[in-house]
Amino acid sequence: MSASHLNERAAVAVTTAQPTGAARAIGLLGALLSGLLFGVGLLLSGMTDPAKVLGFLDIFGAWDPSLAFVMVGGIAAARVGVVLIGRRGATFSGLPVCLPPKRAIDARLIVGSALFGAGWGLAGYCPGPAVVSLGFGSSSALALVAGMLLGLWIVPHSRSRR
Length: 162
Hints:
Layout: H1 3-16, H2 21-45, H3 50-57, H4 66-88, H5 107-123, H6 127-135, H7 139-159
Helix pairs in contact: 3-5, 6-7
């Protein structure tokens, strides 16, 4: 069965199946535990320190490759999850899932990636580490998270005008 067929099947499941209260609760608990595990991993790896991230981006100076190992580990773990969920067509709690079928590189993807990279390089934070650092009272993370939330609000509202 192809990945696109799995995506089509999952997309249909999202529109037709209504999850039960128990499935939602299990899904939320799983999301909470996953988020906590992710946050602890970010703390242990030092990725909540903007200087560590900026050291990775300083390829012509005091380059710190440790972020590359964190990225490779994250990509490997995510790939396993995508494959498992793609085969099942549902989450482990039974909730339907829809994997994004779009794989084309377009102007919106390039502009969004450039904005993400510029913000990452200027602030030294990705969204995950920024939220974790915000939990520890970081004022620089507050500015980034506020901008991130504003962007999350602007995008869907700008799409509705098209």
